[in-house]
Amino acid sequence: MRKRIRGAGAVLGVLATVGALPAQASPPASPASPAPPQQGAPALPLGPTHLPETRTTTTLQPGVTLTRIVRGTPDPSLHWTVEVSIPGGDTSPDPDAPPTALKDKASADELVADLRRDGFEARAEQVTTPRTADYAGGTLGWRVRVGTYASQSTATTERTRLRAAGYTGSAVYTGWDGAPTDRGPWHVDVLTVDPRTFRGSLDASYGPDLENRETTSTLATSAHATAAVNAGFFVLDPKAGAPGDPAGVGVYDGRLLSEPVAGRPSLVLQDNGRRTRVTRFTWQGEVTGRATALRLNGVNRVPGLIRNCGGTEGDAPTSLPLHDVTCTNPDELIAFTPDYGWHTPQGEGVEAVLDAHDRVVELRSPRGGELPPGGSSLQATGRRAADLTALARAGDRLRVRTTLLDERGHRLSPTPHTDILNAGPELVRDGRVHVTPATDGMVHPGDPSWYYGWVHKRNPRTLAGVDAAGRTVLVTADGRDTDTLGLSITESAEVARSLGLRDAVNLDGGGSTTMVAHGEVINDPSDAAGERPVGDALLVLPRRPAD
């Protein structure tokens, strides 16, 4: 079995000086001067067309460049305000609904009237969102805001006064709303891997095991990577599964270690940097023993918990993708490989423990415990427990088979040089903006506030794709700051297309967004605690591993 984190030897060169990098995030200095900005490149489609924009490019290793793009200037028209949560209210279609950021106009007007009676300068604002490839857009709802403030601290003081009066809300910066007239600024970092001159390796790494999280910089340092970005979505809350477990497809060194969220896009990579593509996958899995075959529900995840949904029939509330929701199913059969961790999940049900030769050495209930060296297991819950008990006899050999199917129904047989990372939504297809939030579970029925916060508003983003020349392009955009506004999902697609991407997809963003060069974090992660531990990362290594 190939190593889970591939070593890479010494880093080639130390060209990591990028113009306009914040002091706290500067990579090591280089005696070489940065290359001049690319001439004739189209400006980022952010804000008015006349905004200033600078690009500074350095070569990190042969075939790998890093470009820092700074666009716009501080916008004096932007300010802080307090966004007040709107209760259902007497005029709402659902008076018992919990408070949210967006509601119907009647509920928003009712809250504004209450706030004004209590002495607050409140206003209701209509929120409209752009049309996408699979979502009509239009009016999402109405929000309620109080005051206009020059600083976050002043807005926070007003929020405290609102809470004392019985209201809830948060201090927000209007530059995060996504208005096309905003002047910025924006900070975008772009890693480009050109397979024509690249002699290193692209490698997806989840660290020592799947069930725990590591920072992108830790994963990069462990593999002696030249550069890295955070990658796919993952479980964060223990109530949703094992923190760190990919929340979607995960293929590492050609091995399927996490099943797809049905039909959602993924980033397919070869370690030589060639044939990068965006593909949608479904999967099939089964375990066979003697003359019997049982269908699998998942791979390397806590039974009964399906993060981002998109699992199998019988999942609740849906078997379709639904982002940031944990669907449930009491009757599941899950396969575990040695990559999961030192201890399989504990709980009710049955577990068949297999040795390194796939022979049953133990049938234990309740499930959960250590695995033999090189061993694996199968866990069954609910009605699936009886099926596994009947199949798994001591000494019998059980075979687990998994198959990935692309959107045309064709089987994919990954080689040891293939990695696949979960993603969504799609951003660019065949050189055109093609944003798919509805297909990929980012439209939550009856909850426009979720779409408002995750898709519509500006946030830190990590994007990936391939351009017309076959180059792999990895992009991070900082956000949640007055000095760098971030991107909405539709802005992310426009930026990806302006950078020349033929096909592009959104990776995990928000506080996860991180880019590393020569062992240093070069962007500004938005979590208050600093760099966030993640489920996996995409590494650029200076050498290709020996087979």
Provide an overview of this structure.
- The chain is mostly beta strands.
- Helix content is 11%, strand content 33%.
- The chain has six helices and 34 strands.
- It has an eight-stranded antiparallel sheet, with helices on one face.
- Strand 14 and strand 15 form a beta hairpin.
- The longest helix has 13 residues.
> Assembly state here?
single chain
Distance between the termini: 11 Å
Report the average pLDDT across residues: 91
Stretches where pLDDT falls below 50 for ≥5 residues? Answer: 1-37
The Cα radius of gyration reads: 24 Å
Instruction: Classify the helix fraction into a percent range.
Output: 10-25%
Counted beta strands = 34
The geometry reads as: globular
| Structural category | mainly beta
Strand content: 25-35%
List keywords for this structure.
11% helix, 547 residues, eight-stranded antiparallel beta sheet, 6 helices, mainly beta, disordered N terminus
Annotate the secondary structure layout:
Layout: E1 53-61, E2 64-71, E3 80-84, H1 105-117, E4 122-129, E5 138-149, H2 152-164, E6 169-173, E7 186-193, E8 201-205, E9 214-215, H3 216-222, E10 227-230, E11 250-252, E12 255-258, E13 265-270, E14 277-289, E15 292-295, E16 298-299, E17 305-309, E18 321-328, E19 333-336, E20 350-354, E21 360-364, E22 376-380, H4 384-391, E23 399-406, E24 411-412, E25 418-422, E26 426-429, E27 432-433, H5 448-456, E28 461-467, E29 472-477, H6 489-498, E30 501-506, E31 515-517, E32 520-521, E33 533-534, E34 537-541
Parallel strand pairs: 16-19
Antiparallel strand pairs: 1-2, 2-7, 3-5, 3-6, 4-5, 7-29, 8-34, 9-33, 10-31, 10-34, 11-12, 11-25, 13-14, 13-25, 14-15, 14-23, 17-18, 19-22, 20-21, 20-22, 23-24, 26-27, 26-30, 28-29, 28-30, 31-32
